[in-house]
Design brief:
There is one protein chain. The model has no long low-confidence stretch (mean pLDDT about 95). Helix content is about 25%, strand content about 40%. The protein starts with 14 loop residues before the first helix and ends with a helix. It has one domain. Helix 2 runs antiparallel to helix 7 and helix 9 packs antiparallel against helix 10. With about 450 residues, it is of the alpha/beta class. A hairpin with a 2-residue loop joins strand 1 and strand 2.
């Protein structure tokens, strides 16, 4: 019997499968060689278990890796209605890339934006059109040796998005990337690289969704954000997988001097979701705002681990993650502020707030500091609370039903996040998602 947290060995994830993925896309030798080196790392590293500190609150024993497929084609026919509705609800956009299972099936970019030198393509096409640019940034910050799953990703990545914004180019409309799963046993490994040139400005919305089937599906996405000097990027990731999807993902950003990143992580769907969201401030004057919204119900399990890494002096980070859980759902938040030696005048703030809506739900919070400088300001804290019956009684005395009163409390709990995201259509989507969760 498998040890608690042990994943079944990967039946279809073989060296030959790596070669087939590479051959399918006619990749250059350096890409194929990198895949094979990553596969060797994958074979060497053990599967994480609940005995490992980083994984001790997330049991992966239910993930049936031996039944997953490393590459799944897109079904023939038009885009599913649910996917089209989700994309259209996000409103006007400057470009769109859609990945269905392991394959990019649609890409468009506004002509004026394209004429400014912006490149929006799936990773395979970007390799053909701009091989030197892709090679410079691809898998630059998330190494295969980091975990068993990052090695698996580096060996089998398919699709994903490559976005390059040239220096001093400002993209007025958001660019949208959306990944969709609708095939049995799909294992998908989208790799996204967003490169913002010096003094550029762009907003990217990265969506993930699927139908809910009786089968199991798995997502192992990695996102790398590279902000050059003075770049301004707003990055939103909105995940609403079906309840049959397991996810282990990484979002890592690297900020140069005076760069500004405003990020929002939204977790709504999936069965078990484990995500690392990390911001590395490498240049003086860099600033990172990290916002997060998680709402779990049923038996959903979310394990979100964040990193605010200050590697240069005069940098600022501000993190606010809010989690709500109901039924028998679980949320885990582990946040680290790390300040390197010499990173003086750091300002770092970290706040995690949790709202428990049912007796069977659970929220775990563990904020941390690792300080190696002495002239700085760092604050961190967390709070977990249940519904206040007195507050509910007050609202009900004004004519609301209990369900309406609870909904109002939850909306109020998330209101601070809504107010800090100046994207009207994204805000509307979040309000609708919260309302849908309350009805379940």
């Amino acid at each position: 019997m498998a040890e608690t947290g042990q994943v079944v060995e990967a039946g279809q994830f073989t060296r030959r499968a790596v070669e087939e993925v590479s051959e399918r896309h006619n990749e250059p030798k350096w890409v194929r060689d990198a895949r094979l080196r990553a596969f060797e790392t994958f074979e060497r590293l053990p599967w994480p278990t609940t005995r490992d500190e980083k994984w001790r609150r997330t049991d992966l024993s239910g993930l049936k890796v031996d039944e997953l497929k490393p590459f799944v084609e897109a079904p023939p026919g038009p885009l599913p209605a649910g996917l089209r509705m989700t994309v259209d609800a996000l409103g006007a956009r400057g470009g769109l890339l859609v990945q269905r299972n392991s394959v990019a099936v649609h890409v468009d970019l506004d002509t004026q934006i394209h004429q400014q030198g912006v490149l929006l393509a799936d990773m395979h096409r970007a390799l053909l059109e701009q091989p030197d640019l892709v090679r410079q940034h691809f898998i630059g910050s998330v190494q295969p040796e980091q975990t068993k799953f990052s090695a698996l990703h580096a060996a089998f990545w398919t699709g994903g998005t490559f976005l390059y914004v040239p220096p001093r180019v400002e993209v007025a409309l958001p660019l949208l990337s959306y990944t969709w799963i609708d095939s049995e046993g799909a294992g998908i490994f989208p790799h996204t690289v967003i490169v913002a040139g010096e003094g550029s400005k762009v907003t990217v919305i990265d969506g993930f969704g699927s139908i809910t089937g009786e089968y199991q599906a798995f997502a192992d996405p990695i996102v790398e954000l590279v902000l050059h000097e003075g770049a301004q990027v707003r990055y939103v990731t909105m995940q609403d997988w079906g309840r049959n999807v397991w996810e282990v993902g990484i979002i890592r950003s690297s900020l140069a001097r005076d760069a500004t990143l405003n990020s929002l992580f939204v977790g709504l769907g999936g069965n078990v979701v484990k995500a690392d969201v990390e911001s590395v401030l490498r240049g003086p004057g860099a600033s990172s705002e990290m916002l997060g919204l998680v709402f779990g119900d049923g038996r959903q399990h979310y394990d979100i681990q964040t990193m605010q890494e200050h590697a240069a002096p005069h940098t600022t980070s501000d993190l606010l993650y809010k989690n709500a859980v109901k039924d028998r759902a679980t949320s885990v938040f582990i946040g680290m502020i790390r300040v390197h030696p010499g990173a003086q005048k750091t300002n770092a703030f970290q706040s995690n707030r949790n709202l428990i809506l049912s007796d069977g739900a659970k929220a775990i919070s563990d904020p941390k500091l690792e300080i190696m400088a002495n002239d700085l300001r760092c604050t961190h804290g967390s709070a977990t609370s249940q519904l206040n019956e007195e507050h509910l009684f007050y609202l009900m005395s004004r004519g609301l039903t209990r369900a309406q009163a609870v909904h109002m409390v939850v909306e109020g709990f998330f209101a601070e996040l809504f107010d800090r995201v100046p994207l009207e259509r994204v805000g509307a989507q979040l309000h609708a998602a919260v309302a849908a969760k309350m009805k379940d």
